[in-house]
Specification:
- One of its GO terms (molecular function) is catalytic activity.
- InterPro entries: Endo/exonu/phosph_ase_sf, Endo/exonuclease/phosphatase.
- This is Endonuclease/exonuclease/phosphatase domain-containing protein.
- By secondary structure, the protein is an alpha+beta fold.
- The protein has a single domain, classed as Deoxyribonuclease I, Chain A.
- Helices cover about 20% and strands about 30% of the residues.
- The protein has six helices and 15 strands.
- A hairpin with a 3-residue loop joins β5 and β6.
- The relative contact order is 0.14.
Length: about 260
């Protein structure tokens, strides 16, 4: 199964919708998750259907920000569990393999003061640990300093809170192929900022269910985020990108040396 996840940064212009239609036609995913649509649900439903996804769920934008949409093809058996301004949670029954798994599209809070509430939402919906679970989306946060280049240094506390919620939900980063960053601001070398804000994380049952998955960071044109393309049955999955992680602040912990 192919799944596209993309923070599109608004779909209010006909030209943007046409570009999205072209991309989805070329890739032909079974499920598409669109983040930050900046549209009312009725408007987004029209866009989703024009893109060939008759079935789906659309969440209103708040003013000129936010908005979520998840659509799926007719041959997909998808059932909605819950949704909010920050997430869409579904169960997918993959008839081709007879596999049942859970997919949560997530949009993390752009504002730091609202991030704790977003993390608590993930903890609240972590109610089916036995079901293979994938969370994919724009988390609006990095886990380690090497996931950011340029701009202000991210505080240790913010990254620790992100890593803590992943640990609490018993999910781990599933890696990627392609460029290391998923979001870019400014193009001049003097002020360029790049961060890995978009990712997929999954629990052990999901990783065991789909050992051949691949997550690609695709090139982007009309958004400052790149699309994520997940293929659950792509290949041997031996060329994912993994990074050794180390924070200098860990050296200050008394338990560091015994743990190492």
């Amino acid at each position: 199964m192919k799944l596209i996840c993309w923070n599109v940064r608004g779909l209010g212009m006909p030209r943007t919708v046409r570009r999205l239609q072209h991309m989805l036609r070329d890739i032909n995913p079974s499920v598409v998750l669109l983040i930050e649509t900046k549209l009312r649900s009725a408007q987004m439903a029209q866009v989703r259907r024009r893109c060939g996804f008759i079935n789906g769920i659309d969440v209103d934008a708040v003013g000129r920000s936010g908005g979520l949409s998840m659509g799926w093809k007719n041959n997909c058996d998808v059932s909605l569990r819950s949704y909010s301004q920050r997430h869409i949670d579904v169960l997918i029954n993959d008839d081709s393999d007879g596999k049942l798994w859970r997919c949560t599209g997530f949009y993390g809070a752009p504002e730091e003061q609202h991030r704790a509430a977003a993390w608590n939402l993930l903890r609240q919906i972590n109610d089916m640990p036995e079901i293979p679970w994938l969370i994919i989306g724009d988390f609006n946060e990095i886990a380690f300093l090497n996931e950011k280049q340029g701009g202000l240094t991210r505080s240790d506390r913010q990254m620790q809170e992100f890593r803590r919620v992943l640990s609490d939900c018993e999910v781990e980063d599933i890696g990627y192929k392609g460029r290391w960053y998923t979001w870019e601001k400014w193009r001049f070398e003097s002020n360029n900022i790049r961060e890995r804000l978009d990712r997929g994380v999954a629990n052990s049952p999901w990783l065991n269910l789909f050992p051949r998955y691949v997550l690609n960071h695709l090139s982007h044109s009309f958004s400052d985020h790149c699309p994520l393309l997940l293929n659950t049955q792509d290949g041997e999955n031996s060329n994912k990108t993994w990074h050794f992680r180390f924070e200098a602040s860990w050296l200050l912990e008394d338990s560091c040396e015994p743990e190492v």
